[in-house]
Amino acid sequence: FFVHSLSELSLGEKLRNLRGVARSSDSGVVCCWCLPTDSFRVCFSSLSCGSKVCSLRLKSRISKDNFTINMNRLLLISVLAFSGSVLAQFDRRQPTRDNTITECFSKVADVFFILDSSSSIWVEDYRKTLDFVSQVVTRFDISREDTRIGALSFSDDYTVGFDLDRYRSKSEVLASVDERTLPYKTGVTNTDAAIRYVRENVIFREDITKVMVVITDGGSRSPGATEREADLARDKGFHMVVVGVGQFQDEYEWRRIASDPDNDYIFNITSFNFLESLQDSLPRRICLYPPIILGGECNVLENADLFFLAAPDGINDALDVMGSLQEDFQFRNNLRVRYIMPACQDVIDSNFNPDIYCDRFGDAIEQTDDTYLNLVEELRVSAQEMSVTGFSPNQVAVLFIDDRTIRVPDDE
């Protein structure tokens, strides 16, 4: 999702820039999570980001490039439905940090590497794995507050090189990625035990991006147990990534370990000599994964105006998401909600009950090229009207957007 905290947003320009990001085939979802800003604390934990949790098929269109919204203290949240990479970006000045890639600046994540060191891997190839992990680590923004790294090597059993809370700097992590800390073990491939250890024993931070990266050259000793452990990890909010090495390996188990979609979570190369080809793409992908928030209550601690905007073709999906939010919001009397949607009444909902004011089975409304622009103009007017009542200076708008919505004709 894209969050913009600003007083003037050139929507057409922003949407034109987004056009290259949203490419839909099988819809995934980019969800919002807790936004602990100074002025407004409301979290969207029930969206539970992840392609297995919810799916949006939003259809609307933006057709002009010269529309400007002038809103005072309005926080805009755009929910994009698309497959492929997930992008989370905040408007801020980006620092420069050695080899850290742009996508990983200030990324809050816990990343744990699970390294296969069984007998099927030659010791020289295992050393290439360690070199690769070192190169990947240099791309992260490592600190106690941002990205933390842990690692183990495994075969029959596992050796934990270092846990997530062991080191606070990139140099400390790099100094420990070696055979002394992560030994070459030989033996069979008990991938299930390694995944289970990380899931059950490593302390991960809550409500952040949690990733396990399994680097292996083939199938495990117990494929069924490995699949079950990977399922349990995903259910606990982990992104499961597989770096699979081998030209003629059966990818079935890799697909059972990895999160969906496969092209976002499986990196297949034919030889350990080609690991270096992933040293930028793997950390970049990891840093674009959003947190997977697992339910829970969301307490609205301050008064706030909340707006939902969706074009006609996206209303059913928007209502599904709103229904999930409604179930988990506590202290809803602190909210005033307005629905900028053709299927909803133009009223102020003081208790966030969209089912009362919106009719998903109402008369169909034809969507034109100007529909979304007109709704955004209505949002601007509504925000201004509600801001003068003195209820709260805090305003949040949730815009449902997909590929059709943000497509701008080439002649405009």
Summarize the helices and strands and which ones pair or pack.
Elements: E1 2-10, H1 11-18, E2 35-36, E3 41-42, E4 68-80, E5 89-90, E6 109-116, H2 123-139, E7 147-154, E8 158-162, H3 170-176, H4 191-201, E9 209-216, H5 223-235, E10 238-245, H6 252-257, H7 262-265, E11 266-269, H8 281-288, E12 298-299, E13 304-309, H9 315-328, E14 329-330, E15 335-340, E16 348-349, H10 354-357, H11 371-387, E17 395-401, H12 403-406
Parallel strand pairs: 1-5, 4-17, 6-7, 6-9, 9-10, 10-11, 12-14, 13-15, 13-17
Antiparallel strand pairs: 1-4, 2-3, 7-8, 15-16
Helix pairs in contact: 4-5
What can you tell me about this protein's structure?
With 412 residues, the chain is of the alpha/beta class. 27% of the residues lie in helices and 23% in strands. It has helices at residues 11-18, 123-139, 170-176, 191-201, 223-235, 252-257, 262-265, 281-288, 315-328, 354-357, 371-387, 403-406, and strands spanning 2-10, 35-36, 41-42, 68-80, 89-90, 109-116, 147-154, 158-162, 209-216, 238-245, 266-269, 298-299, 304-309, 329-330, 335-340, 348-349, 395-401. It has a seven-stranded mixed beta sheet with strand order 5-1-4-17-13-15-16. Strands 8-7-6-9-10-11 form a six-stranded mixed beta sheet, sandwiched between helices. It has a two-stranded antiparallel sheet with strand order 2-3. Strand 9, helix 5 and strand 10 form a beta-alpha-beta unit. Helix 4 runs parallel beside helix 5. The relative contact order is 0.19.
